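[stage:ingest] chain + small molecule (iron/sulfur cluster)
[stage:ingest] validated
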Amino acid sequence: MRNVFRLADRAAPIEDVPDPLRVRLPLGGARLLVRVGDAVAAGQRVAESPGLRGDVHASIGGVAAAVDGDFLTISRDPDAAPAPERLGEVAGADADALRRGLAAMGVPCADLTDADLLVVNALEPEPGVTALGALCRFESPAMLAGARLAQRIAEPSRIVLAAPRGAGLSLGPNPVHELEPRYPDGLDALTVRAVTGRERPGNAVVVGADRLWLMGRAALEGRAATRAVLTVRGRNLRVAVGASVRHVLDFAGLAAHEGDRVLLGGALRGEAVWDLDAPVPRGAYALTVLPRAAGAVYTDAACMNCGECHLICPARILVGIMARFAEFGRFEGAQRYGLDSCLECGLCAWVCPARRPLLQFIRLARRELARAAEAQPPAASMETPGDAPVEAPGAAPEARREVPA
Ligand code: SF4
Ligand code: SF4
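[stage:predict] done
[stage:export] tokens:
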């Protein structure tokens, strides 16, 4: 089956969604710096992440109202005057200090290492998304400030903007490398391959246009990473991180009915939200409502070994086999069949005639392996030593894990 998906090369302007009365901030394992009942200012750092994953900041001012699981809820006082975000600073003489400063402002930057080439990726991550193009087109001061900061951190000899052919995007004096706007070539690994002609070149790093914008916003205005720009049915909406999906849908005039699927992301890679009060996380780029009639319906049908998933996979993975390992809880087996190379493009699931939830199996395997590694870092094993490389499905039904929606 041929891949016919195209990426957008035009973008609508960015609209600001009014702040909600409540945000629920995903903490991602970060250590809380406030307690329930504390007053918090907009922009204040409220949790510290390990490494350079990016700290968590209040996207609205108010009161820390609750901590449940891995989320901090902040309630805004509707009568209080809107407080400006507290300004911070990304300061430092050397790259390490700049990285630490950026992470403290909420921008993940562990991967921003020394490189000969820095690729700024402005190709959209999915069909129907225009958020990255909008940032390049309408937020150019922040984008340029981000590029200057990235230059100081990674010290590349060249910065290249990878952009859809004919979109007319630019990034100051830096050269533009135009690419066919064809999905999934906007995914970082494929964009770098297209720009350099090599797979995983050791001397290149890639930064998405959305992250460069956050870097520039931090450098230029001292603002922490408290906003995300999402494409919602053709519009680009700037939203407070932690605002509910319902809040965004209401602003966009969209409703989700019984049986519809609401995805954070687009139709190919998006993750279904469990309810409309789910928060918009940092790094989100789209919100999609798939009507019941249009959405893909997945089944637990067995694989037919037709090979369509393998033929379309840009990472050349034997997806059918890998997914069977994941389906039956044999996650390290899935790793042996290329799990770590998967780009999560979702094309395999899209073409599967059995409608198997292949992307969900892949994500399940990754999460379970990550969880196992955190719980038992050394020599964690989830398989018996005698596992054969390929195994018939159904061999261990008791090990089957619940598949996320
Ligand atoms: S989601 Fe992963 S396995 Fe499936 S086609 Fe994309 S890269 Fe291949
Ligand atoms: S997983 Fe789906 S597309 Fe892949 S071989 Fe099996 S039936 Fe075919």
